[in-house]
Specification:
The complex is a heterodimer of chains A (517) and B (743). Chain A folds into 2 domains: 395 residues, no CATH class; 57 residues. In chain A, 32% of the residues lie in helices and 22% in strands. Chain A has 10 helices and 19 strands. Chain A has an 8-stranded mixed β-sheet with strand order 4-3-2-1-5-10-11-12. In chain A, strands 14-15-16-18 form a 4-stranded mixed β-sheet, covered by helices on one side. In chain A, strands 8-7-9 form a 3-stranded antiparallel β-sheet, with no helix packed on it. In chain A, α3 runs parallel beside α5. The longest helix of chain A is centred in the C-terminal third of the chain and has 30 residues. The radius of gyration of chain A is 23 Å and the shape is globular. Chain A starts with 6 loop residues before the first strand and ends with a helix. Chain B is α+β, with helices and mostly antiparallel strands and 743 residues long. Chain B folds into 3 domains: 439 residues, no CATH class; 52 residues; 196 residues, Sandwich (Immunoglobulin-like), CATH 2.60.40.1190. Chain B has 13 helices and 37 strands. In chain B, strands 25, 26, 27, 28, 29, 30, 31, 32, 33, 34, 35, 36 and 37 form a 13-stranded mixed β-sheet that branches. An 8-stranded mixed β-sheet of chain B has the order 7-6-5-2-9-14-15-16. In chain B, α3 crosses α4, α5 packs across α7 and α10 runs parallel beside α12. Classes of the chains: A alpha+beta (517), B alpha+beta (743).
């Protein structure tokens, strides 16, 4: 057997539920009304006989508090599985099912607290779904592990325009404009506004770059037959983000488009750094919708952003096809794998006394507002929306107060990052919605031929997600760069880059030495 | 605009499988000639290469061509609608400056005295492998500045730049005249796709790069700050890219009257600069793109333009080993037959793929007539301000550089040329600063021109600069047109061309492209270009109001039931052009049909409600007749007779509550009671208002149909109250109300 011969296993599961569950992703509780398209989870296990990585991707908005239970459940099923090798990520769809409790007894979730679910509304306990979800995830991890068989990988990258900068800059500080809203969601704008208006006279451009790189890892069985592809795109899967049906967003159409070309292969999506990106072009919307009307032969979409999803799917699948045509020429059957998990203590985004005091005052104000009681003739979903928005507002203020208290004890935020090398390519994960500049820094300095950044990855404990803005993002302010949005400061972002690059260099030198031997 | 939508659309798959000819034949063929605003289109193209040894423009050192790698070409596209016109001219050149526009226009005028030369938009693709056409090369000698009489070594043969200039300008004037003379009735289609050709070329660092040890501070390199053009991304202090790289590829396709594709204008925000150091003539990636497209579509005309791309280039600054591996695997070799050959192919593939994708759907809507306006505006822009220290630095640098002797020709004339021409460039950059300082002291503004035009709902805006992309996004974001295409490096009157126009943030970051040598105009001047361009676009849009509103003739019975299912309704022309009070397309679309008979005006309004966030709840607070209906989800009808002082004002909310009154001279009188009949019906994605207004309502025995003047407004309460009106005509601006015409 070849030294470092690769063995590869895949498994996938549908993690949708027909039950009415909360769809996290907005500041209000949305109770699902069925499934538009399946939310799925996919596991890819790759081993070189010495080290392992198990990529586990799920169509969810975040994976807060999910990593530990999945590892425990896997361990329970098969104690031989090295669960620390699981690199879990979510695609950030805003229409994936919620797995936290919601409502009177809710705990842990972002909207937990004392909001009452209207009695006339049916909602499944998040814990029931959580159990189902964790079971499914553990099951596919075990299956992928058990199905490992000799195989090969191929890799490459293509260019596909999927994401666009979502941070519009203005010549003036928009928070100082007459009538500017001052709350925890909109009261955070400065020179930047997320999804700001581009027809504003003071619009000055976008804050930063987008990233058209699609990183691809193909897998093959021993007979060199394509078995699956890992597709890493710097874009959150959040078209149709306000819907009330479960959906994987553009990954659904993308999977269909890829499978139309390659047959029923496994597809594992990853979101690379995309904290400041989204699948929406903001400044040419008229041209965009004219394009769709002509291209798809109708003006009306069957659901929100249907056309954008189809268009994106076409571009990603074309890129997969293009890259496959040449990447398959270099099948790699053996490659050293090194997988390290870094425990990081990153500089927190510090809450100033002023922030703290503003939040205390805002909370007091929000606490005075009462929840709307259920009323006959009033749509209970509307009542729930209003009440949960109020609760979100309170929770955002409480978050600031908690962080103020926590930072008195420590200025560091503990998290984990995975760095994995497979031959000449590497993966580097983090828990954040990472601004794309950080990705470019890591990729620019990485010694590996290709470096896949995986954002929104699972970490131990209850934490997860949160935007990690750059210094310029911080200075420009706006949603995603506000005190509410950032647990870690831009300095912490720099630390993440330095530590990741250092670890990548270390892994590279290991392989390099091995080659020398 | 007149257009026809085909009933049968060929599938993309079928097209791809078909022969080249099948691509060219559109099923969208007009059955009859459209007289009003009918378009005429003409094309011409020429090879502007020369096998003579000429100086090549684009670097700080002189290069002498050693032949033609691939032809540099020029292409002209004439379009007019009988009222206005544009002549796009694109040349595979570094710029369109040095008096090119003036001299070419004069030659055109000489041949065709009636030719409207002000309609010429002449631009360069910014290839760095095309001949110098200036009377004097800036890198060898420049008479107006200097005493440098450094000449190309005698042992190196070159033709004089003036000779090529004469040849080039002759060719350019020739194709402009030919395009004009070739003009025939035809149509166009347009759209955009994605082709990531450019990448941001301004790497930003955490520290000020100029303060690093050993950093050069001469006029060629001493320009860095936090940004460095083509900076090293492996640097420990690398922060990211200053901005994005616009991936949009804009297309305008032209067709003859048989619906056959005749050519395409392709606008990509990226200079043609892969092979920027070649010593052969080349059109760079546009050559490869043209070859690929013509392989599929036959020998059509192709006119490349560069959108705003001052801060972008086809150069990828990171992932270069991944790229080399990609090249090796994809193209089966690592050896490139000329500089960046494989990267040029990749750029061309992206453009060619986007062409296929956009053409497949854009051709479904061919316009054979279109409203068209073209304005050229002279601007005076603020200079990029030089500090006295800049001038003093330039003076001392020039003094230092003047002391450096030219390297003798010896037995290495090419090396001598390289060294000496760089020395001349450095001196000239310092001289330019000194000259600009003088202009600044004399308070002479920078004079330039911009072109702004629209052809239907497609707009173009040109300027002479290497424009940073933020400016493009500002213009496009604020443009009221469906698609707005920017053209950089367009020729202007006078000797100047090119020069980077950086944004405020990039001026702060410095670096080549954003420093004192590179910018003649300040970022405030860039803002001014945006505002002036947008103001013309807005003016055009406001003027794009039709002469009349088409109304169908009522022939059968119309039941006022909120269902527009009668045959007359089906045949009536649909009016869709609602504009919000902010000048934008409204959040929700509105469709209107009109029917007339001798006694009544029938109005059918379909008000879409697709974008309501969450559950749709209409605002219906008016309660009773003549209440504040305008504050509800409602439609308003203003109807009057030409020349009268007042008009009737009707409003209906979604609950069917009516307001009827008279308006005029700023006064409103709700005491008027009409005999209007109406029905409002709600559907899942819209509501429909069906209305019959007796013309007798207008206060005369019998309303005179030909004198009718109408305006329509829709009020939507969804997110915040939004009012939109037909063609953006203000609600009670009675003189602007439109007459009706039965069609």
């Amino acid at each position: 057997m070849d030294k470092n011969a690769l063995s590869i296993g895949w498994a996938s599961a549908d993690v949708s539920t027909k039950d009415p569950v909360n769809l996290p992703g907005q500041f209000h509780v949305r109770v699902s009304k069925g499934i538009l398209d399946p939310a799925t989870a996919t596991a890819l296990w790759i081993s070189d006989g010495k080290d392992d990585v198990c990529f586990l991707s799920i169509d969810l908005v975040t994976c807060r508090g999910l990593y530990d239970p999945v590892k425990e459940a896997v361990k329970k099923r098969n104690k031989n599985i090295p669960v620390d090798k699981i690199l879990l990520n979510v695609t950030h769809t805003h229409t994936g099912p919620g797995y936290h409790e919601v409502g009177v007894t809710g705990k842990n979730g972002p909207l937990s607290g004392d909001v009452k679910i209207p009695t006339s509304m049916k909602i499944t306990d998040g814990l029931k779904y959580r159990k189902f979800l964790v079971d499914q995830l553990a099951s596919i991890v075990c299956e992928a592990y058990e199905k490992r068989a000799p195989g090969a990988i191929a890799y490459g990258y293509g260019l596909a325009v999927v994401s666009h900068s979502r941070r519009c800059l203005y010549m003036d500080d928009v928070s100082k404009r007459p009538g500017a809203v001052n709350n925890s969601t909109h009261g955070v704008n400065g020179h930047a506004v997320m999804y700001g208006k581009t027809n504003d006279d003071k619009f000055s451009g976008y804050e930063g770059a987008s990233d058209p790189f699609v990183n691809l890892l193909f897998t093959f069985d021993a007979k060199k037959k394509l078995t699956g592809v890992l597709v890493n795109v710097p874009c959150p899967s959040q078209n149709s983000e306000g819907m009330y049906q479960i959906s994987a967003s553009f990954w659904n159409e993308t999977r269909i488009a890829i499978r139309k070309i390659f047959g029923d292969i496994f597809i594992l999506p990853q979101a690379a750094a995309a904290g400041d990106l989204s699948p929406r072009q903001l400044h040419c919307v008229k041209a965009e919708y004219r394009r769709y009307a002509l291209k798809y032969g109708r003006e009306k979409e069957l659901f929100a952003e249907e056309f954008r999803r189809r268009d994106i799917a076409e571009r990603i699948s074309s890129s997969v096809k293009e890259v496959y045509s040449w990447a398959k020429k270099d099948l790699i059957t053996s490659a050293p794998i090194h997988h390290e998990v870094l425990d990081l203590a990153l500089s927190r985004r510090m809450i100033t006394r002023e922030d703290y005091e503003i939040s205390c005052a805002q909370l007091e104000e929000l606490n005075k507002q009462s929840f709307q009681p259920e009323e006959k003739g009033v749509d209970p979903q509307e009542t729930l929306k209003r009440n949960s928005i109020l609760l979100s507002g309170r929770n955002r203020c409480k978050g600031i107060i908690r962080r103020w208290e926590a930072q008195q004890k420590t200025t560091k935020y503990n998290t984990q990052a995975h760095v994995v090398s497979i031959g000449d390519i590497a993966f580097a994960s983090n828990q954040f919605e990472l601004y794309v500049d950080y990705q470019h820094r890591i990729q620019g300095r990485s010694p590996f031929i290709q470096t896949f950044i995986v954002q929104l990855s699972g970490v131990p404990g209850e934490s997860g997600g949160s935007y990690l803005a750059t210094k310029r993002g911080f200075l420009n302010r706006g949603y995603s760069a506000s005190r509410y949005c950032n647990l870690v400061s831009w300095k912490g972002g720099n630390e993440l880059v330095e530590k990741t690059v250092k670890a990548l260099k270390k892994l590279w030198s290991k392989d390099h030495k091995e080659e020398k031997k | 605009m007149k257009k026809r939508m085909p009933f049968l659309l060929l599938s993309c798959a079928f097209l791809l499988a078909g022969s080249a000819c099948s691509f060219l034949k559109s099923e969208n063929v007009p059955q009859e000639k459209k007289k009003e605003n009918a378009l005429k289109i003409g094309w011409a193209s020429a090879d502007i290469s020369t096998t003579e040894p000429v100086l090549i423009a684009g670097q700080f050192h002189a290069r002498i061509s050693k032949g033609v790698l691939d032809p540099v070409t020029a292409t002209a596209l004439w379009m007019d609608n009988g009222k206005d016109a544009v002549c796009f001219v694109s040349a595979d050149l570094v710029s369109a400056g040095s008096g090119m526009l003036d001299e070419v226009s004069a030659l055109v005028k000489k041949r065709i005295p009636s030719f409207p030369v002000e309609k010429i938009i002449l631009s360069g693709t910014h290839t760095h492998a095309a001949p110098v056409f200036a009377a004097q090369s800036s890198v060898v000698s420049r008479e107006e500045h200097n005493g440098d009489l450094y000449k190309v070594p005698t042992s190196l043969k070159t033709v004089k730049s003036g000779e090529y200039r004469k040849f080039l300008f002759g060719k350019l004037s020739d194709i402009i005249c030919k395009a004009y003379e070739n003009r025939k009735e035809g149509g166009f289609a347009y759209g955009y796709g994605s082709a990531q050709v450019g990448h941001n070329r301004r790497a930003v660092y955490k520290d000020d790069f100029s303060k690093r040890k050993g950093v050069k501070k001469d006029p060629l390199h001493g320009v860095h700050g936090h940004a460095v053009m083509y900076g090293n991304t492996k640097d420990r202090m690398f922060y990211g890219f200053e901005g994005g790289a616009d991936p949009t590829a804009n297309f305008l396709f032209t067709f003859d009257m048989a619906g056959t594709l005749t050519g395409a204008l392709i606008n990509v925000s990226c200079p043609a600069q892969h092979s920027s150091r070649l010593e052969m003539l080349s059109a760079d990636y546009w050559h490869n793109a043209r070859a690929m497209i013509r392989k599929k579509y036959g020998n059509i005309f192709l006119l490349p333009q560069c959108g705003a791309a001052g801060d972008t280039a086809p150069v990828q600054l990171y992932y270069n080993r991944a790229r080399a591996r990609r090249d090796r695997l994809k193209y089966g070799r690592t050896k490139q037959y000329y500089q960046d050959e494989l990267h040029r192919i990749q750029s061309a593939e992206k453009i060619s793929d986007a062409f296929d994708e956009v053409y497949a759907w854009a051709k479904k809507e061919i316009f054979f007539s279109a409203d068209m306006r073209h304005e050229v505006r002279d601007l005076e822009l603020p200079l990029r301000k030089l500090e006295k220290a800049d001038r003093d630095f330039a003076v001392s640098e020039l003094e230092r550089l003047n002391k450096i002797p030219f390297v003798p020709e010896g037995d290495k004339p090419e090396k001598a040329l390289w060294t000496n021409s760089r020395l001349v460039s450095s001196r000239n950059r310092s001289r330019a600063i000194i000259a600009r300082w003088k202009l600044q002291q004399e308070k002479v503004p920078y004079r330039t021109q911009i072109h702004v035009l629209h052809i239907g709902d497609l707009a173009f805006a040109s300027n002479q600069f290497e424009l940073y992309q933020d400016y493009q996004h500002r213009i496009q974001g604020r443009s009221p047109f469906a698609q707005t295409v920017l053209i950089q490096l367009a020729g202007v009157k006078g000797p100047y061309g090119g020069t980077y126009l950086a944004t405020k943030r990039s001026v702060e970051n410095k670096g080549y492209g954003s420093e004192r040598f590179s910018n003649r105009v300040s970022w405030e001047g860039g803002d001014r270009i945006v505002d002036e361009t947008v103001s013309i676009l807005e003016k055009f849009k406001k003027e794009s109001v039709p002469a009349f509103l088409p109304a169908g003739k009522r022939t059968g019975k119309i039941r006022i039931d909120g269902v527009l299912d009668e045959e007359d309704w089906k045949k009536a022309e649909e009016l869709t052009k609602f504009v919000s009070s902010a000048g934008d397309p409204p959040t929700e679309r509105t469709f209107v049909k009109l029917l007339l008979d001798e006694k009544n005006l029938y109005i059918g309004i379909k008000a879409m409600t697709e974008n309501f966030p969450g559950k749709r709840v209409f605002k219906e607070d008016a309660g009773k007749r003549d209440g504040a209906v305008w504050q509800d989800d409602s439609v308003e009808i203003m109807l009057g007779l030409s020349g009268r002082r007042t008009h009737n004002h009707y409003m209906l909310n979604t609950a069917g509550v009516l307001y009827d009154g008279k308006a005029g001279g700023g006064k409103f009188d709700s005491s008027f009671t009409s005999r209007l009949e109406s029905c409002v019906k709600k559907y899942p994605d819209c509501y429909v208002a069906e209305i019959r207004i007796p013309l007798a309502d207008l206060g005369e025995e019998k309303g005179k149909a030909e004198e009718l003047r109408l305006n329509l407004v829709r009020n939507s309460s969804f997110i915040q109250m939004e009012s939109s009106s037909l063609y953006g005509i203000r609600a009670h601006d009675f003189p602007k109300f439109l007459p009706l015409k039965i069609r």
